[in-house]
Amino acid sequence: MIKVSMILMVVLLSFSSCNKDVDATEPAIEPAPDCDCDEIIEYTTFNLLNVGQFGTYITINQCTGVQVNGDWDNYNGGPTPYAGMCW
Predict the structure, then answer these.
(1) CA 72, CA 44: separation in Å to the nearest integer?
(2) 0.70 exceeded by the pTM?
(3) pLDDT, tens digit, for every residue of 7-62?
(4) What does DSSP assign to residue 28?
(5) To the nearest 10°, the Cα dihedral for 9, 14, 16, 22?
(6) What is the set of domains in the chain, with CATH numbers?
């Protein structure tokens, strides 16, 4: 009976010693915003036959909060915008 008690105690101690306590009050570290990036938050795309694509976009700067509306086209090889892209 003593051997069974000892084995049980060793097993219980081994399970309890493997748990790592995580401090839930510690905030998650977020990366600093890129102040040189006007992030595209919304865009439209239209296709023009034999010419290319064009549309409008809305960007917002994560540091200043300034919102800019603009037009884009890829007639001369310009980029096609997508959500999250730096403009």
Answers:
(1) 9
(2) no
(3) 766 666 666 555 555 556 777 787 777 788 899 999 999 998 888 899 999 999 98
(4) P
(5) 170
(6) 33-87 (2.30.30)
